[in-house]
Amino acid sequence: MSAATPGVTPYYFVPAPSRHPVMAAFGLFLVILGAGQWVNGHGWGAYSLAAGLVWWLATLFFWFRDSIGESESGQYSERVDVSYRWSMSWFIFSEVMFFAAFFGALYWARVYSVPMLGDIDHREILWPDFRAVWPSGGTGSTASPADTVEPFRVMGPWPIPTINTAILLTSGATLTIAHHAVIAGQRSKAIAWMWLTVLLGITFVGFQAYEYIHAYRDLNLKLTSGIYGSTFFMLTGFHGFHVFVGMLMLVFITLRLMKGHFTPERHFGFEGAAWYWHFVDVVWLGLYFLVYWL
């Protein structure tokens, strides 16, 4: 932490060099390494993934603790508040591009790749038994002419995806109520609605975990189930991870509310988490329509 006069807000706070970024990067390295090895059949990857998550979450805890301490000690001026708002805005924009790439992969596979493999040149020369229909495990199609993909059934919109849609939309409403309560200075009301929002987030993640069990056990739908399986788990899996991260944000914001950290005039920590949660809601609506219905 940079030196500052006690009780006086600096013109602009500049923190000292920190170990947190490199430690967080190391944790994410273990996560990616473990996940990549686990899905390729190496059992030790699961341990690397778990260790990386624990390391990463512990780093975030200490990193956020330091930032909260700086904020509560009066180090952050309005200029720092503005920089945080711009930083969160650009972060959410990067997440928009992140999901745009995945939705783009789904679009390209459905509109270009699968029809191209089914045209006369490819069908007659490469895969005579291939039928260019979506989903790739649909009626009348041969999902894998070379028998590299096991037969599977697709995931429909009912009941769990539709229930989860209602849960996320409700959580957006409860979070908005809590935000208005913070603005009105009604801390107890805000805390109650925030815990309800967290509970809805936990319920969403629980339903999605059950959906994955159902997909593997009953539908034989896996990450290896052709282009449909890979795009399905890529989109729903990364979205579920974002819900989990957003839920952690809401938990810490609620705990800070209970400690009295926010005022009606200054509560960007709350607003930043709310922006992220509403972003997750919007992404799910697109995912629900494009993945489960079409």
Task: Walk me through what this model shows.
Helices cover 71% and strands 0% of the residues. The model has no long low-confidence stretch (mean pLDDT 89). The chain has two domains: 9-76, Orthogonal Bundle (Helix Hairpins); 79-293, Four Helix Bundle (Hemerythrin (Met), subunit A) (Up-down Bundle), CATH 1.20.120.80. With 294 residues, it is mainly α. It has eight helices and no strands. It is elongated. Helix 1 (20-39) packs antiparallel against helix 2 (44-72), helix 3 (78-117) packs parallel to helix 8 and helix 5 (160-183) packs antiparallel against helix 6. The N and C termini lie far apart (52 Å).
Provide key terms for this protein:
294 residues; mainly alpha; Helix Hairpins; Four Helix Bundle (Hemerythrin (Met), subunit A); 2 domains; 8 helices; 71% helix; elongated
Gyration radius from CA atoms, angstroms: 23 Å
Q: Separation of termini? A: 52 Å
How much helix is in the residues? Answer: over 70%
Q: Give the low-confidence spans.
A: none
Under the CATH scheme, the architecture of the largest domain is Up-down Bundle
- Compute the average pLDDT: 89
Global geometry: elongated
Total number of distinct structural domains: 2
Strand portion, in percent?
under 5%
Tally of alpha and pi helices = 8
Output the helix-strand order: HHHHHHHH
Supply the CATH superfamily name of the largest domain: Cytochrome c oxidase, subunit III, four-helix bundle
